[in-house]
Write a structure and sequence with these properties.
This protein is of the alpha/beta class and 234 residues long. It has a single domain, classed as 4-Layer Sandwich (Metallo-beta-lactamase, Chain A), CATH 3.60.15. Helix 2 runs parallel beside helix 3. The longest helix has 16 residues. The chain is globular. The termini are close together.
Length: 234
């Protein structure tokens, strides 16, 4: 069983039998945690909506806390409560094992990294800001470059079976908000996908239901209605 908690924006907590995984926390409340479990904390990059210094407070109550942070966070982390003995600073194209948790990083099309995480037979993917940022106002050459960059990264995990994925659907992209999700879902075997980075625009889930492009995987899109919502995945 996988328990997923939506915190806010791109922030999610995943709970497995003996471990928690906290992704891109920057605000919101966490439930009471079992201090006997491992606690893996991921931050994909230093943008203020993906990283918060408060994450270093969690290690005081959770003795088995391990941080996997993008390298652009390093200076701030070590200055504001981070301890080098339980932090792994990562860059794109790395593979590492942290306390039995296998982690692979991809290169973001914005800043930092995306994470592919394998633990006890379960696979999680958190995109961070790896997305098809198709800003039409930037011009056709920019959009073509972005498409090549995004598709290249997703193809690196092409065919991967993923139990739960967290992928941006930013409404600021207007009519192109779902194109990154579309490519991701058609090129991985993802069982459940949680759209994120939607800036509290919960109406985006109704839009996704009506998009012709989501017909092939619509039933695998998890509908988020509010912060603090939990999902149980078998």
């Amino acid at each position: 069983m996988i328990k997923v908690l939506y915190i806010e924006h791109s922030g999610f907590q995943v709970e497995l039998e003996d471990a928690y995984f906290l992704f891109d926390y920057y605000r919101g409340e966490l439930p009471e945690l079992d201090p006997g479990k491992k606690f893996f904390i991921f931050s994909s990059h230093a943008h203020q909506d993906h990283y918060q210094r408060r994450i270093f407070e969690f290690q005081e109550k959770m003795p088995h806390t391990f941080y996997i942070l993008s390298k652009d966070i390093k200076r701030d982390a070590l200055k504001h409560g981070g301890r080098e003995e339980n932090i792994w600073f990562v860059k794109p194209e790395e593979e590492l094992d942290v306390q039995g948790c296998r982690i692979r990083t991809l290169c973001s099309t914005d800043e930092g990294v995306a994470f592919l995480v394998q633990y006890q037979g379960k696979v999680l993917y958190h995109a961070g800001d790896l997305n098809a940022w198709y800003w039409d106002e930037e011009g056709e050459d920019y959009v073509k470059m972005m498409r090549r960059s995004y598709e290249r990264e997703i193809q690196k995990i092409g065919g991967e079976t993923i139990d739960a994925a967290f992928v941006p659907v930013d409404p600021r992209l207007e009519g192109r908000y779902a194109e990154g999700l579309e490519f991701f879902m058609l090129h991985t075997r993802t069982k459940c996908v949680f759209p994120m980075h939607f800036w509290n625009d919960y109406g985006i889930f109704e839009r996704l239901k009506k998009e012709a492009c989501t017909a092939k995987y619509r039933e695998r899109i998890m509908e988020i209605r509010e912060p603090g919502q939990t999902f149980l995945l078998s």
